[in-house]
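Encoded backbone
================
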Amino acid sequence: MGIKGHGVAAALALGFFFMPPASAQPGAFAKKPSDALETYNGAVKNFELVLGQRRAQISSKQGLPNLPGQALYLARIHMMSAYKDLTDALPSRIGRPNKFKIPPAYFDADNEPLIDEYRKLFDLMEAPPADAQKSDTPFKDVVDLGTAIARARGLDATHAEAAGRVSLGIFFAETNGNQNIGNARSNKYKGSMQTDPSEDQKGRRKWAAMKQSIAAFDPALSLRDDREEARAGGLDHRYNHWTAVRDGLMGAHADIFPHLPAIVKTLPDPIDQMKFFELIQIIPTPTISALKSGNLVDYRISGATNMGYLRNNSIFAFGQADRARTSATVREILDAMWLFNAKFEKALTRFDEIRAR
């Protein structure tokens, strides 16, 4: 899961220090293999320590610190960064493939159990609140809402289906496909689409303006929406799966759906399409500028703020050379979003299952 909305100051506070352009010259990060190995071994031990501390706190029902996932996240980033620096200094250390499909230069497969524990801890720390309103069909809901919104925005059946598929990808990117979750790294973003209160309100207003047109061609979906609105009542709508997804899509993506024909033509790979829409979540302004540029894949995004947002979502976050980048093309960014691949592959599998029914 990513975090939106962190500017440069916040990114620096979270440990994302940017190297000046002059430091990015070839060989600037050359490190003795022995030093790189020592740093990496220390990073692994620190990750193990932080995981153990958090597990002990949870098991003994101790109170957790504010943003309890942040220390875990930074320790994981540091371990992977140190490993990338090690493999840059000593390529022979690049090992076997790992089950997470992380490029082997960035991750030692021997540490798979540490990532398993990391994910288990986040599942515990981000469990939905007791009053959250789950859906028995969470994946179908996302596809149905994305498809209906796209149809209301004038897309044909083929591209409306693509919108439903992309919407499911966003859900997996934000929450690993878990509904109504909290956020162990943010007090601001919550629920099935990880929106903040203002984004949720914006989506609700835009949905209200569109709902009548959707009811005209999909009355069953409109009736479901009425039931979910009544069910949610005064609850934070981000903790009702249906309304959270609906408002999240309306607030961030509905206005981009009309561009799907051009996006699909330029990015025919469904996973690239999902990555592009996830970029709308992370860095909306430059991503929309790229879309409007007429040269999407080669459009270059730069600036400390934008690069900070990317790094805070595990893009160009690992190793000194990657973290020193001051700009990247959209194609380079999509290629660097490899941590999202497994999530989007799961989304595609679920989408195909829904379509088969």
About this structure: Residues 5-28 have pLDDT under 50 and may be disordered.
